[in-house]
Amino acid sequence: MTNLEAIKAKVGWNLSTNSFTLALTDRGLTTTDTYTATSEAFELTYADCLIMLLSSPQSESEGGYSISSGDRSNLQKIADAIYRKYDDARANNTGTSKAKFVQRW
Asked: 63, 67, 90, 104: least surrounded by Cβ within 10 Å?
């Protein structure tokens, strides 16, 4: 099984092959290399694909797919957990925003 086949199987949602290829390439993985075991780069690629999925337009009427709000929340939590696990810079840019109030006087 190649990295491309593995990431498609792991995500399980319809993203374009180019989206998967881009995510793998951005993390330094080659699509045609044999998938051997889950690595940091592969897990971060998985998180990137989930974010791509969450940010892509979906339309049931155009033969696409639909993600419920519960699915969105769960996919976001999975991506956030992976980013935090590897202390990835994206970890700070995903999930719920937190404001810190500081009273100056």
From this structure: 104
